[in-house]
């Protein structure tokens, strides 16, 4: 069986894994949901967001994530029967740097950085990631964004870009552990590309898939942890 110490590099999804994007989304959509006469559950809001985001990313893969989010805000408003001016849409699109990090992310990353080369593979634009990176507080060895690739995960292009980048860094695929929360965006396509994986199952106490689409059949996991803290502690113990 594989052990965490068998790898020399970690590739990370950021949003949902390190950054609490669901909290950021729910806060950013409150100007809409507060207008509703009937209360809507957080999961229903996140599922609505996931539908509109995935459609926009598939239809306009070359657009920056901040622009995708602005369109998502407008589509959510329409779905809820509400009006939204473009200024409100644009504010939501620019909100990614305000999304909080999970409480354990920065400390766990600081520990793991001592043992691995650390790589980002994220469905985001570079300006938005730069804001989030300040919350995560490490120097990354590679940052590969959707803006760089010109498409969004789970598109195969994104994983081709990751693997080409890893090769340029002098790493073999077998040295890389892909670390993410989303089955839809990361683990299903990652496993299809032969990547070992660590599922950071942030939603372990919740139903459904939240802000990601239902992936259908779940991917197998090389490792599973409920938080980044658990992953760092497992590495430190040397037992996994």
Count of runs of 4 or more consecutive helical residues: 11
Structural class: alpha/beta
Which residues form runs of ≥5 with pLDDT under 50?
Answer: none
Give the helix level as a range of percent: 40-55%
Report the β-strand fraction as a percent range: 5-15%
Give the neighbour order of strands across the main sheet.
3-2-1-4-5-6
Tell me, briefly, the overall form: globular
Number of strands: 6
Structure characterization notes:
- The chain is α/β, with parallel strands linked by helices.
- The chain is 46% helix and 11% strand.
- It is built from eleven helices and six strands.
- The protein has helices at 21-28, 30-33, 42-59, 65-79, 86-93, 105-113, 126-136, 146-149, 156-168, 183-192, 228-237; strands at residues 9-12, 117-122, 142-145, 176-180, 196-200, 223-225.
- Strands 3-2-1-4-5-6 form a six-stranded parallel sheet, with helices on both faces.
- Helix 7 (126-136) links the parallel strand 2 and strand 3 (142-145).
- Helix 4 packs across helix 5.
- The longest helix is centred in the first third of the chain and has 18 residues, at 42-59.
- The relative contact order is 0.18.
């Amino acid at each position: 069986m594989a052990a965490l110490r068998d790898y020399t590099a970690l590739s990370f999804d950021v949003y949902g894994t390190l950054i609490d994007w669901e909290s950021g989304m729910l806060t950013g959509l409150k100007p809409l949901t507060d207008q509703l006469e009937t209360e809507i559950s957080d999961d229903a809001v996140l599922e609505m967001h996931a539908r509109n985001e995935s459609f926009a990313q598939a239809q306009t893969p070359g657009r920056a994530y901040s622009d995708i989010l602005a369109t998502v805000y407008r589509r959510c408003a329409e779905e809820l029967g509400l009006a939204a001016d473009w200024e409100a849409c644009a504010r939501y699109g620019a909100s990614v740097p305000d999304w909080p990090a999970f409480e354990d992310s920065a400390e766990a990353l600081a520990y793991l950085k001592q043992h691995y080369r650390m790589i980002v593979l994220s469905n985001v634009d570079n300006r938005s990631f730069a804001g989030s990176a300040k919350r995560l507080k490490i120097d990354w060895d590679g940052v590969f964004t959707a803006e760089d690739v010109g498409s969004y995960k789970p598109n195969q292009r994104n994983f081709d870009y990751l693997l080409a980048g890893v090769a340029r860094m002098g790493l073999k695929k077998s040295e890389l552990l892909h670390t993410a929360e989303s089955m839809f965006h990361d683990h299903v396509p990652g496993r299809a590309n032969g990547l070992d994986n660590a599922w950071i199952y942030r939603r372990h106490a919740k139903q459904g898939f939240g802000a990601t689409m239902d992936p259908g059949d779940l991917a197998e996991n090389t490792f599973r942890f409920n938080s980044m803290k658990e992953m760092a502690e497992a590495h430190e113990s040397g037992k996994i």
